[in-house]
Every structure is written in C-alpha cells, then in structure tokens.
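Writing this down once: the sequence line spells out the residues, with the fold written below as integer tokens. I am pasting one below:
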Amino acid sequence: MFEFASWGYGEWAATVAALVLGVFLIGGAWAVTRPQEEVLGHPKGLYMLFFAEMWERFSYYGMRALLTLYLVKHWLYSDGSANLIYGAYTSLVYITPVLGGWLADRYLGQRKAVLFGAVLLTLGHFFMAFEGDGSGHTNDPTLNVFWLALALIIVGSGFLKANISVIVGQLYPRTDIRRDSAYTIFYMGINLGAACGVLIAAFLGETVSWSLGFGLAGFGMLVGLIVFVIGKPLLRGNGEPPAPAKLKEKVAGINLEYLLYGVGFLGVAVIWALIQYQETVGWILLVSGIALLGYVLFEAFKLDNEARDRVFAMIFLILLMPLFWGLFEQAGGSLNLFTDRHVDKGGIPTTFFQSINPIYIILLGPLFAGLWQWLANKGIEPSTPAKMGLGIVQMGLAFVVMVWGAENFSTGEAGALMMPVLFLFLFYLLSTTGELCLSPVGLSAMNRLSVRHMASLMMAAFFFGTAGGNYVAGFMGSLMGEGEGGNMTRELALNAYWNMGLVAVGVGLVVMVVSPLVKKLMHLDSLRDDDDASEASRVFGDAEVGEPQAGGIHPASKND
C-alpha cells in the first residue's frame, strides 16, 4: 500500500506527470482510431508524430537532466571534467542533424531516416542503463559502454531530429493556413515530453537508481519507435525517399540504402572515439567553424549588393549564438551541480528543476507569439536583431538576479549557505523568456534572408553557432570546476555567474543599440517571396512555440 502521507514533492510531481502522459495517450489513441481522415481539423498523422516526438523528448531530456550528476556521482569525474563531457556531448548532438537532414533530403527520405535514428536512440538510451561496478571511470571498463551509448544517441538524434518536423509540414498543402497551428501542437508535444521525462525518468534515476532512470528513458524511446512504425499509414505516403529506385542500386555489391545505414554505424564508431577526447571536439568545432565562416563569406561576394548585405546581417546574428547558448546550457551542466549543493530545494530532487524551462515554454510560448503579432499590428514590433539582443539581456539578467539572491538571501552557516529556491525559478523564467526572444526569431531570420541556393548553408551555420555555444557552456563549466580538489566551490560559481551575467547584459545592450544598422543590412523592404511558393521563405515552425535547446529542428523551408 502506498504511503501517500510520506510522499515528497518529487513523488507527487512524478505522479502528476504520469497522469498527464496518460491523459494525452488516451486522447491520442482516440484521435488516431477515428474513422475519418482528419480529427479536430488536422490529419491524424499529426497526432502520431506528436506522440513519437513526445516520447523521443521524454527520453532525451530525462537522460540530459541526469547526465552531469551521473558523471560526478557515479563515474566520479571531477566537476570540470563532467562539464566538459556534457558540453562536448550536447554540441555534437547539434551538429549531426545537419548531416542527417542532408542524407534524408538526398537519399533516404525523412521517414526512413527517422526510423533509423529512433533505432539508434533506443539502443543508446538502453545502453545508458549499464552502470558497471561503481568503482569510477578510472577502473571500470563498463565506461566504454557509456561512451557507446552517448555515440548512439548523438548519431540517432542527427537522423531523427533533423527530419521528423519536416514530415509535419508535408502533411499539409504548401498554402494551408493550418500549418502554424499544426506546429504549435507539435512543439507542445516536444515540451510536454521534455517536462515529463525530467519529472519521471530523471526523478527515478536520481532518487532510486541510475539504471532505472536511464532504462525508463530507453523505454520511452522504444514506445516512440513503436508508435512511429505502427502509424506509418497515417503519413499518407509523405517522407518517402526522393528516388526509391536509387536506394536499391548496388554500391560495392551492397544496396545503397544499407550502405547509408552502414555509414550511420560508422559515424557511431567515430563519435565513440571522439567523445572521449573532449578538448579535440572543441578544436574541431573552432577550426571547422572558421572554415565554414570563410566559405560563407566567399559565397557572399558572388551575390548582388543587397543579398550580400543580408549575409553579413546573418553572420552577425550567428555570432550571437555561442554567447547565448553558452550561458543557457549552464542549466544542464554547472548549474545542475550548483542546485544540488547550494540551493535550499525543500526536499525537491535536483533534476526536477530541469523541467521548469519546458513548462515555462508551454505556458509562455503562445503569449510571445501573440505579443509579436500584436506589436506588429501596432507597427511597433522590434526588429529581429533587437529581439535577439533583448533575449541576450534577459539571459544575462537571469544570472545577475540569481547571484544577487544568493548573496543577499541565503541562509545557513558559513561554508554551507543555501540560496532560496525562488531565485532558481526566477533564473529559469528569465532564461526562458530570453530563449523565446532569440531562438525561434533566429531560425526564422536565417531562412527568410537567405537566397535559395544558400538557405541550407546558412541554416547549417546557424546550427553550428548553436553547437559552439553548447561546447562553450561545457568549457566555462570546466573552468568553474577548477576549485578545491577539482570541484566547483560556491564562491567560484557565483563569481563566474555574476561575470557571465554582466557580460551578457552588456553585449545584449550593444546588440540592441546597433540593431537599426543590422536591420538596414537586411533590406526588408525589398524582400520578395520566391515565384513558386508564397511561403517558401519561412522556416518550419518559425511562428510557433520553441523547444528548450531546439537542437535538430530541421531548417528546411516549406518547399520540402
């Protein structure tokens, strides 16, 4: 018999999350089993994709919330090393969707790519459940299984996240006015899965056993895979290979399709080796980022004056990404450790706080979408660079407010001061509003301003900037980990957060000041839609709710 009276906040939150999942599952089952082609004004395939992606995010964010704590408490890494591993992992998750999207567009089609990615992700999350003997990373050979799990998740994310949102758009005609509401529904599934994954899988992993949390994340991914396979007929033939016969052609005696899957597994082997040398990941990102920027500039000088100016404006926006995401991703790295040790949580598990961001997005995303529309109707909507500058200011203020609260309202004895949990909620509120000002706006700008033949290149550069930000987050966290005994101290963390916040506020204000100049480079008054599609210049979901760390949202235009 359950002893409800002894339950803490974590148990109740996990139970409520499970009930919410149950309600949505029942509702989804009702929707997809209706005899009609459409339910509540949308194709039944949308609801199938909603649940497949919901379970994928359930597994990903459930695992993400546990990762840094798992590295420190189970594998006995120092705080600095754990943060660097976290940064390398999340940055690679952001890069692989570029390749996964390209392979799908050119050869596999989105459905096969998503299916293959889901298989890799399921394997990766289940391999995370192998804990080893608990003797630490220097003694336990099971660590190699852990690296394999990360590699499978990284490559699987590249194939799945780069393509599943594309299929959503393919369910609707190009000029269908239901697109915006469809992506709103879809991204609600993303954030619902993210929040519930943290509240259920991460909670059990932190409070019961690591293997249970990771195993449950793997189970969630398996459910998502099954949903996607069973729901194939609901896709109405969308997402299929562009040239099915080409996949059957022999290359070195092997069908091209199987050869491409082999390339995916080869990528797992490469990432397995690379992820173990996190500093190397940083150098690869730096060198390749410089090369990519050089190539973008080379291509820009082939364009007419206005198109070239727009490329310069996009480069300016891309260069903001490492700063913003470098700060934002402290939430899953160093701030996770700070919360565990220096916040008066009132009995709430540490991982719980990783659910606040997606919950805030579910609540605030529609408000922001309506706000921009209202301001536009009034003729006072901020420009894209001004919005992004405002987002960076809010990200900086999140740290400033949190440090101010920690310095002035902490309780306890010297050496064991605990920050009131209120300031952690304020941190996540400001970082989420900052994200909503920056991430969807930036995605939209890249596709809106790019000439057709450079659209994919500019989106790749945008994602690359975001990937760089994830690595920067881990690197900054690693510097904070160089405290006493290789661990992050309260004083060192607060000092670093304070400086991060002030720099971000300063940079954000500068961006807002120069935003009129950047807007002038965008030449918005002369932008025209492509001849063959009135909406071709819009990125998928650019007016909808964002995703926390929206890595892998495929940057295809609505032509695809």
Q: What stands out?
A: The chain is about 70% helix and 0% strand. Residues 144 and 272 are 8 Å apart (CA to CA). Residues 531-545, 549-560 have pLDDT under 50 and may be disordered.
